[in-house]
């Protein structure tokens, strides 16, 4: 299933995308208004969700929102693609010897087609195309071989980064957490629909010019190793959002930062695309 949050006639609802339409799931008992809560109940509710067929809205007649807007955590891994680590090393940044994690504050999350704000305090606004996934079951100390069972689904993300602010703190958090700098979507594709999440092509373009293109198979630490590593430290909860790293071709590598009016598109095979216009902070 492709689970989404959408706005129609001023009402925010949870739905599923089928072809060019959105089936309203809000009438299914137990769905509620929170995607995080729905993910926790998904195994029990799945038959009813799959059977739901109406009412349906045209996809272009609704506004798609961030598929999940209330995760307890938004965690992201740095320099996790081999080619990206190589371009960073060429710039004098050493490759981490273990998984390098940081927080994106959840207040940065925005919708798949919402604007990205260019802050007044920086001219180093950068893009990072990423595969993201959401946790589907509460878990702790999960080994890599069993990690897939706790993944609820996948989505497209842009780990927008303000590079000079990122450099001000060794944790990266400030430069990763400006408002609007966490566009995700366009929906959550449940795990059962993706045969192999480690064989997906990922692409990013700015104003139609391709800047990033790679495969999720280029990850240094795959998503299962990530779940194992994180769950060694903390309990992962349904809805926790995890961004899995970006390929080579980020703006800082060529000193090509985003400008007011730029259109940034991130697309991943089988998961759809998000597209966000850069807008100068008022």
Question: What is shown here, in short?
Answer:
This protein has 6 helices and 19 strands. With 282 residues, it is of the alpha+beta class. The relative contact order is 0.21.
Describe the model.
- The structure is a single chain.
- The chain folds into two domains: 2-65, no CATH class; 74-280, Fumarylacetoacetate hydrolase, domain 2, CATH 3.90.850.10.
- The protein is 18% helix and 35% strand.
- The radius of gyration is 18 Å and the shape is globular.
- β1 and β2 (11-18) form a beta hairpin.
- With 282 residues, the protein is an alpha+beta fold.
- The chain starts with a strand and ends with a strand.
- Strands 1, 2, 3, 4, 5, 6, 7, 8, 11, 12, 14 and 17 form a twelve-stranded mixed sheet that branches. Strands 9-19-18-15-16 form a five-stranded mixed sheet, with no helix packed on it.
- The chain has helices spanning 35-51, 82-90, 163-167, 173-176, 223-233, 251-254, and strands at residues 2-8, 11-18, 21-24, 56-58, 63-65, 74-78, 100-103, 109-110, 116-118, 125-126, 129-135, 151-158, 161-162, 182-190, 201-206, 209-215, 241-243, 263-268, 272-280.
């Amino acid at each position: 299933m492709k689970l989404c949050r959408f706005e129609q006639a001023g009402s925010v609802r949870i739905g599923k995308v089928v072809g060019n339409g959105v089936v309203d799931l809000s009438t299914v008992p137990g769905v509620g208004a929170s995607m995080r809560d729905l993910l926790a109940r998904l195994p029990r509710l799945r038959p009813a969700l799959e059977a739901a067929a109406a009412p349906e809205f045209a996809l272009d007649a609704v506004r798609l929102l961030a598929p999940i807007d209330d995760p307890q955590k938004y965690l992201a891994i740095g320099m996790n693609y081999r080619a990206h680590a190589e371009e960073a090393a060429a710039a004098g940044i050493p490759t981490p010897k273990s998984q390098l994690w940081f927080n994106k504050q959840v207040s940065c999350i925005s919708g798949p087609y919402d604007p990205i704000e260019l802050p007044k305090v920086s001219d180093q606004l950068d893009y990072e195309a990423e595969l993201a996934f959401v946790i589907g079951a509460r878990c702790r100390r999960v080994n890599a071989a069993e990690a897939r069972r706790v993944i609820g689904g996948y989505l497209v993300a842009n780990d927008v980064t303000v590079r000079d602010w990122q450099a001000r703190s060794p944790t990266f958090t400030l430069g990763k957490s400006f408002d609007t700098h966490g566009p995700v979507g366009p929906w959550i594709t449940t795990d059962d629909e993706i045969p192999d999440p480690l064989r997906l092509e990922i692409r990013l373009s700015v104003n139609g010019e391709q800047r990033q293109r790679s495969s999720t198979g280029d990850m240094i630490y795959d998503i299962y190793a990530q779940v194992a590593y994180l769950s060694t430290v903390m309990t992962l909860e349904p809805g926790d959002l995890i961004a899995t790293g970006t390929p080579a071709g980020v703006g800082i590598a060529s000193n090509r930062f985003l400008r007011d009016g730029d259109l940034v598109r991130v697309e991943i095979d089988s998961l759809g695309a998000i597209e966000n216009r850069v807008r100068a902070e008022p």
